[in-house]
Amino acid sequence: MNGMNGHQNGDSNGCGGDIISQNQLKGCWTIGLINSKFRYLTAETFGFKINANGASLKKKQIWTLEPDTNSSGDSLIYLRSHLDKYLAVDSFGNVTCEADEKDPGSQFQISVAEDGTGRWAFKNVVRGYFLGASSDKLTCTAKNRRRLGYLSNISTYADVETVAELK
């Protein structure tokens, strides 16, 4: 034990080892989410703020994709930050990353591009809208993937094209 938090060698969730090894044991994926402007989704350490400003994949840009084991083949997932907080959407479409536990607003459905690029979009199950972002504000207000530039070229009004890059 290190005397600070009662955990050994940085073990904060009882699994031991690094985050990638822990996630593999649990059946989760460790990913970075990058938008069409090649900026990573970032969970800031201070105030649980999130943005799409990351220039490279570092600790603050690492997300854990947790499959919903209760869903019946619907590709439902939860996204957890390196701070062990869940990405969630409120009733107004605002995206937060403060929840310690999974709740209905933190469940997303993966939609994979049919054009062979492997790009993903995340649709919030409760709101029925797609996740998008400007550089420093995430929202869940896009009704279809095309507005996000998911299946077409990015236009000036598009917020973000969310893409999963497996690491």
Automatic annotation (TrEMBL):
Pfam families: Fascin (PF06268). GO terms for molecular function: actin filament binding; protein-macromolecule adaptor activity. One of its GO terms (cellular component) is cytoplasm. It comes from the Eukaryota. Its main location: cytoplasm. This is Fascin-like domain-containing protein. It is found in: Cytoplasm. Residues 39-143 form the Fascin-like domain. InterPro entries: Actin-crosslinking, Fascin-like_dom. Keywords: Actin-binding, Cytoplasm. The keyword Transcription regulation does not apply. The keyword ATP-binding does not apply.
